[in-house]
Structures are given as C-alpha cells and as structure tokens.
Amino acid sequence: MRFRHRDGSTVHLGYCASVHPVADLDELVARLDGCAGVVRSALDVPVLGVGLWFPHRLADRLANSPASLSRLRRALHRNQLEVVTVNGIPHTGKAGGTDLYCPDWTEPERLRYTVDLIDVLAELLPDDATYGSISTVPLAWRVPWSRARNRAAREAFDRVEQHLAHTETRTGRRIRIAVETEPGCVLEMIGQAAAWLARYSSPDGGTSRIGLGLDVCHLAVQFEDPAESFELLWRAGVDVVKAQLSVAPTLVDPSDVSGRYVLGQLGVPKYLRQVREWGGPGVDDVAQSPQLSGHAAWRMHAHLATHAVAPAPLSVTTGVLDDCLARLVGGGHPLTHHLESEVYVWPRDPRTQQALAKRLSKELSWLRNRLTALGLQEV
Fold first, then answer.
1. What pTM was computed for the model?
2. What are phi and psi of 217, to 5 degrees?
3. For 166-173, what is the mean pLDDT?
C-alpha cells in the first residue's frame, strides 16, 4: 500500500514474505499467486508491497538469470504487487537458533548473498520509488566476537557500500542496507547500532546508503525507550532505512505460573525466543527463564500481530508501536519511507495460504488505520 505524507513524499506499507518461506522460484511464484495477490484483493488497493525473501541459491539464480527474473516480475505484475524492500537476514530458511545469523558479516557468503540481493532489487524496484531497502543481520551473534572479526565486518560493509554506489551509477536505482538490532547479537541495543553505523552517515546531510533497520518488536523486548532511541540515532546521524512492525508479548507478573506457561507456548521453537527482564538481565530462550529473578516484567522475542488480542494474562507492546509510528511518520517529514509488517506468531497457526492471507489482510488493515490517524493519505 502507498500513503502520501504531508510533505508530499510516498510512504510504502507492505508485509514481510518470510512468513511463507520458499525454497525455489516455483514456490515463490505460487506464494505470490496464492497469498500475496489474495491479500491485495482483500484490501482492495491498487498495489500491495511485499517484502520478498528468498534463499541464497534463488538469490544467485535471480541475479544471474534474466529469464528467471522476468518470470518473477510477471508474477508480481499480474498480482499487482511491488517490491521496495527485501529481507536479507535468513540465508537458507532452514537454520534455527543462533544459526539464523549465519553466515555472519565476517564470512564471504554473507557479502555474496547481499550483493545478489542488491542486484535483484535494483531490477525489481518501481521506477518512482525513492529507494530500495535490504534488511541484514546485526553483524553476528554476540559470541564469538573480537576486534579481528569487527575489522572483517567493516571491510565487508565497505565493499557493500562500494557496490551500492556502483549499482546506483549503473542503474539509477538507489538501494540501501538496513542493519537490524536484535537481542543477543553484536548490535543488540539502539545505542550500539548508532555507534557502529555512525561511520556511514552522510556528511552532507543527505540520506546514507547504510543505516538502521528499526524492528519495533526488538526495541520493545529490550525495554528501550523510543524517545531515547530516536535521540541516539539523531545524534549519531544514522538514518532509519526501514521499520518492521509487530508487537511483543509482556508478562507483567512473572510470579504468575500460568502466565509463564502461556508465554512459553508462544513463538516458533525454530527461532530463539529471547526473554528480557525489566531493569535486569535476560536469557537467550524462554526455556531458560527460571534463571531470571522474576521481580519485574518480562518481554519475549515473538512477533505478534498488532490486531490480535494477547492470550491472558499476557499483554502486548502496542504503546511502543504507536510511539514509534508517530515518530517515524507523524512529523513534518517521514524518518523512513518503508514500513513492513513482520508477524510470524498468530493466535492459531494458519493451515492454508488462504487462511494466512486473511490474517495478513487484518493486520495490514489495522496498520492502515493507524497511519491514516497520523494524517497520511492512502493513494
């Protein structure tokens, strides 16, 4: 979906297609036809944004096969879909736990994968889009990390920045990298990301090619204050390239045994379900939560739908989401032009693509209402 901001620029809203992972081009086309196109029809919008994800083998194929890329472009066109952003975090779609972040930015495979994604997005990006964005990992899982590994990551990002500049010169398309923060990773907090990414800020006050991917769920899980977070980014000159939207579950009273049980049932066991305690430490998975004191509220890394009601006695971080949205697009100029719904935990697991499409339609409708309430006009 597209929205006109009060400054006249376009803000894009779509959903992250990692919610229906694929292994090859046939599966990707089938998901566009069987889910994304259905969502667009249900919302009755002229065009729907879909944040594509594809594994490294498919990224390589699309980057090097004009016929394959043409087939994907045709599928997008017939379903009235557009691609302004790509999820470049999972490498294969099969990894679980800390393997999700592998290969990390110290390994050449991460660089090759990202370069392929840049080349593909440059070909898919609509002509009138201000820029395209690619999410990437917060460098790596926090251990092992060292000065040598940090230097290797810097060198890789320098090469990415050069490729981004070359791509813009060659195609006229501006592609930007959005580095996320995530609990347990090298860049876990907004302050850490702001310090690391400040090197890539634009010296002339323009938009940088490398900036932050603001995941509102991750920010909430860390109990980070939105006002302080945006202040840190502003002082460091770090742009918000894209924002991913969802809410996190909160257990206000961890002494509630039933609440602990409900929290433990949420999320996707394949992924880490990090838990953080207000004012205290955290654990890398909800199964380790007995190690926490239980004296203050817990939040867990699980991307819940904003429109759904949390199972009792849990609550959700809707207030954090609303605060971030107001700061991102409620001012005189949008801080980002890319908003993406990233939900992978539903009250009941949708069994079919049609059921998933219905859930996604409700989620995007909820977000559409939030944006129009902030003064954006749907176009």
1. 0.97
2. -65, -45
3. 97
